[in-house]
Design brief:
The chain has helices spanning 26-35, 48-53, 77-90, 104-108, 119-132, 151-163, 195-204, 219-225, 236-240, 248-251, 262-278, 283-287, 300-310, 318-325; strands at residues 15-17, 40-47, 68-73, 94-99, 137-142, 169-173, 209-213, 231-234. The protein is an alpha/beta fold. Helix 3 (77-90) packs parallel to helix 5 (119-132), helix 5 packs parallel to helix 6 and helix 11 (262-278) packs antiparallel against helix 14 (318-325). The structure holds flavin mononucleotide.
Length: 334
């Protein structure tokens, strides 16, 4: 792992990019890694069913992505153990169990946020994975589900999963989830954020590593949270405004190193893009993650538009990215 404090197995967890289905794929993670060396990157949720029965390699990632955590979706301890073992053999740095996703599809599979109501099963799942891997097994959860939203409900969950399952790292998306009536998107917006609840959890479980997630938009916000908890996980803002990541190593991890310009990051993507294209990837599948890089800069709209209009065309190659980059006034790329 490339983190600053190798003695602490959760050092990289101080700042992480959230698992986001369809967003944090391996192209995205490669791009994010160019902006920050230290941040812990999460994969999208991968279900045990996909890994065990699916066609294709659901565990593929680029070596450059370390430290990288695999997020698993599932609730069968044996299946989770099988997948965790495979992931550890492939070199993942952490396994995270999804106990926060409220989608119907996930509930039908009896995993995700609905597992908050079954702490003993979550403990069994974590224990089964910990039995077969040496890397950390962590849990990402909400502060409650439906009407089960008292602080005691959350502390009971954390007590059981930590004591019986041996989990010592929790990422808390600081809002509850409604299991019916709200879409996953609404469930990321409507239930109010309650950071003090996550802070209290850290006070009451000082021996656990607690990270907070939800609504974090700046590194200043992140530093404020870090006065109360061990880690901050950022989702949508990191994806939509990735240049936020350019100062994470300096501001959050305290490293003394130059800040990359946006154009430098684009150019550092070229060898990766060319290698991927030569393996049959579509340009648009890579560049879609880069669209927000120039957010709020002169030329940002032209960059976005040029890529959106051209990257999906058959045979589109690196020249599309070069031409899009030329839309940005270079003297303003600071
Ligand atoms: C497009 C999208 C996909 C997501 N997929 C997952 C997922 O696979 N697993 C998960 O635990 N959370 C998922 N989430 C939730 C995020 O990890 C995060 O908890 C949530 O967006 C709140 O953080 P934010 O306000 O910083 O975005 C997803 C969020 C978005 C926007």
């Amino acid at each position: 792992m490339q983190n600053t404090d190798k003695a602490n197995k959760y050092a990289a967890n101080r700042f992480s990019i959230a698992p986001m289905l369809d967003w944090t794929d391996r192209h995205c993670r490669y791009f994010h890694r160019l902006l920050t060396n230290e941040t812990l990157l999460y994969t999208e949720m991968v279900t045990t069913g996909a890994i065990i029965h699916g066609k294709g390699d659901f565990l593929a990632y680029n070596e450059e992505e370390h430290p990288v955590a695999l997020q698993l979706g599932g609730s069968n301890p044996q299946d989770l153990a099988t997948c965790a073992k495979l992931a550890a053999e492939r070199g993942y740095d952490e396994i995270n169990l999804n106990v926060g996703c409220p989608s119907d599809r996930v509930q039908n599979g009896r995993f995700g946020a609905c597992l908050m109501a079954e702490p003993q099963l979550v403990a069994d799942c974590v224990a089964a994975m910990r039995d077969v891997v040496d890397i950390p097994v962590t849990v990402k959860t909400r502060i409650g589900i439906d009407d089960q939203d008292s602080y005691e409900f959350l502390t009971d969950f954390v007590s059981i999963v930590s004591e019986k399952g041996g989990c010592d790292q929790f990422t808390i998306h600081a809002r509850k989830a409604w299991l019916s009536g709200l879409s996953p998107k609404e469930n990321r917006e409507i239930p109010p954020l309650d950071y003090p609840r996550a802070y209290q959890l850290k006070k009451d479980f000082a021996h656990l590593n607690i990270a907070v997630n939800g609504g974090v938009k700046t590194l200043g916000d992140s530093l404020s949270h870090l006065e109360h908890v061990d880690g901050v996980m950022v989702g949508r803002e990191a994806y939509q405004n990735p240049y936020l990541l350019a100062e994470v190593d300096q501001q959050i991890f305290g490293l003394d190193k130059p800040i990359k310009k946006r154009s430098q990051v684009v150019k550092e993507m070229y060898p990766y893009i060319e290698a991927q294209l030569s393996k049959g990837a579509y340009l648009g599948h890579i560049t879609r993650h880069m669209i927000g890089l120039f957010q709020a800069m002169p030329g940002a709209r032209q960059w976005r538009r040029y890529i959106s209009e051209n990257a999906h065309k058959p045979g589109a190659g690196i020249e599309v990215v070069e031409a899009a980059l030329a839309k940005i006034p270079q003297e303003l790329d600071v």
